Amino acid sequence: MTGIAQMNLYQLYIKSEDTLLAAAGDQTIGSKILLSADGGKTWKKVADNLYCNASNVYAFAYSFFFDSPKHGYILGQGYYATTTDGGNTWIKTSRSTAENICSAITNSIGTIIFSDGGYIFSSTDGDLANANQVATLSPFAFNTSQFIRYGKTLFIVDDYGELLSSIDDGNTWITKTFSYVNSGYTKSFNAIAFLDSTTNIFCGSELTMYKTTDAGATWNEIVYGAGEGLNTIYCKNNLDCYIGGNYGRLFHTTDGGTNWTWNDFNTKGKIHQITFPTNDTGYVSSSGYVSVLTGLIFRTIDGGINWQSTVTQLDGTYLQFPSKDIGYIGYSSDSNPAIEKSIDAGQTWNEITDPNNGFGSGGACFSTTANGLVEGKRNKLLYTTDGGITWITKYLPNSNSLALEILSLKNNWVIFSIRDSLITPTSIRYVEMFVLDNNLNIKMTKQIIGDRGGLVKINDSAVCFQSGDSIYYSKNYGNTWTSQKTWGDFYSLCFPTSQIAYSVGLNIIYKAFFASNLVINNVSVTNKTVTMQLTTSDVSAINASIYLLNNKGDTVYTITKSIQNGISFSITLPETIADGTYTVLIVPTDTLLYNKTQSQAFTITTTNTAIVENTIPLLIKVIGNRIECNCINYEIYNTLGQRMQNNSDLVTGIYIVRCNDITKEVIIKP
Asked: Residue 560: its pLDDT value, please?
């Protein structure tokens, strides 16, 4: 914006094709109004210091509203302002901080209807300070979405799960409250829209939309989104994935994320962890109702169709089932961390005795039902081989290190730790990666300045984590690391295969593809047959198009095949392919998962040159018991079709002599 310092924009109002109004705030006092008369090319400030008299100097604007081309309002937190010249000048009216005029609309006869501090008012003279109260919103619902009107029918939704509707221009109102089943917690709705005079939809922050086709008499839930925020993800494979939300909703896809279904669990708390020890048996941990339950465990034995819950004393920020029936859960809080164990498929839980002054509040991992590695107090690591009955203590090198996450790979444990340097006056935080081998020897393999986490197992030898705007990954059991920039912040990351990753951010799902390199080996040529191998570390077979390129790079032949990883295959070229130098280009059908590859140059030389027809007359002689012929490559057969050796003595009888395409009958007499 020309001539305007850097600001945060709250609202943008398009008054006409060229005239735009914007509400903004900077680091000084209150809100400002900016006006553009040229479609946004240039802007000028037309009002500032918009806030209530006593306090709330950072009060922001909710919306603009014009009831005529010249007369309009800006509605804000603890104030409103009016204009009578189309937005060029404004007069502010300050109010108390409890008065928040969020939205306004005119009804069919020009009366202004507006929401203010949990109430709905009407004004016939345009003076919002002298209006009549016509309805009451929820006592906690200070923020409401924009009014919407179709004829004499008006709707508005608030941020405490209430929908208000009027069919008489806003004179009388009917309230409908949408609540979670059996929870007592209401939903929060943000926007509403008319499709026609009787059909209306509205959406909210708990992933729910509702639709009415009878002007609000009845409502049906129709679609969902991700407004509540997503928390964790678990994938059985690249198509079958589960995602947990912050308000107890579990999403499920079986087609790689194209379509989703969901279960609403009977909990207000977020879903923490999801795990499936078998294809059919799965577990979900979640926080319970606020001030009622500490934690809930949900179990399915039919692949996620039906779920049953049990209560635990821990909220399940850590959950793992190494087998179908034996599992571990923790921790309840940083001040009193704990681990519980179940041996009956999560129906009952018993706390594991705190060893060596107790567990820490960081990472834990059980590679089997017996073997586990858990963070202890301060910089301790606690290792068990008997399911938590006894423990061996190991130490990280620095006393202020915290082992926040732990993973088990094929040959070792990988530990994500953070450490503050405690340098005054500014503390620097380090991410330190450690490897603990099977002999319990520990070494640091990576140190960076950063934070975050998200330690994720890709396969038996590969692991990754995020710090800052980069993802760090190791393909050799955490011993060495490389990095690359990420596609965005994420809270949870899952690799169902080493080539596909799913992750969730605040309210978005990402899907990433990591293309594998292909290598062409052992190319050999016999006449017009080319034999080779294609190798990759990620799959047993791929579908691909094979192109034969000449020394100019032109495609002279192509074929599509399913190629087995590491198995030799051949392509037989037509006779029209001339002798010369060529390369093979292999282009996988799935270019997201595999990179194309080209072979080294090779030469095609035809060795079985066709026999030129002999123009010399065929001469056959019988000398004694032998047959002689002037043809270089002649063949002799007896009457049984058996080939006889040339220049050998034959018994009395009839023989066939064949040379090129000519055959003759020869008789050897006694």
From this structure: 93
**In whole angstroms, what is the distance from residue 412 CA to residue 103 CA?**
60
Give CA–CA dist 220/225, Å, rounded.
Answer: 15
Residue from 447, 421, 422, 423 nearest 434 by CA: 447
CA distance 170 to 148: 11
**Domain limits of the chain?**
8-223, 355-480, 519-604, 620-668
Cis amide prior to 425 (ω within 30 degrees): yes
- Taking only the tens place, the pLDDT of each residue in 337-352 is 888 899 999 999 988 8
For the domain 519-604, what is the CATH code?
2.60.40.3080
The answer to whether the beta carbons of residues 248 and 267 sit under 8 Å apart is yes
Furthest-apart CA atoms within the chain: distance in Å: 139
Number of helices followed by number of strands (H, E) in the chain: 0, 61
For 625-629, the CB contacts below 8 A with 24+ separation are 625/649, 625/650, 625/651, 625/652, 625/668, 626/650, 627/655, 627/657, 627/666, 627/668, 629/657, 629/659
- 168 touches 152 (CB < 8 A): yes
Question: Once rounded to an integer, what is the mean pLDDT over residues 578-597?
Answer: 90
Return the closest-CA partner of residue 96 out of 162, 52, 45: 52
Please state, in angstroms and rounded to a whole number, the distance separating the CA atoms of residues 532 and 603: 14
Amino acid letter for position 224: Y
Task: Please tell me the CATH code under which domain 8-223 is placed.
Answer: 2.130.10.10
pTM: 0.56
Task: Write the pLDDT tens digit of every residue in 611-644.
Answer: 334 445 667 888 888 888 877 778 888 877 788 8
CB 432 within 8 A of CB 451: no
CA atoms within 13 Å, Cβ hemisphere of 306? 3
Token pair 């590679």 is at which residue? 367
In whole angstroms, give the CA distance from residue 332 to residue 353: 15
SS3 (DSSP) at 411: coil
Please tell me the predicted confidence (pLDDT) of residue 659: 80
Q: Which two tokens stand for residue 187?
A: 């939903």
SS3 category, 657: strand
Determine what percent of the chain falls in helix, strand and coil, rounding each to the nearest 5: 0, 50, 50
CA distance 374 to 364: 4
| Spatial distance between the Cα atoms of 360 and 375, rounded to a whole number of angstroms | 5
HSE-up of residue 175 (Cα within 13 Å, Cβ side): 13
Compute the Cα dihedral for 260, 266, 271, 277 and give only its sign: negative
Residue 583 has pLDDT above 80, yes or no: yes
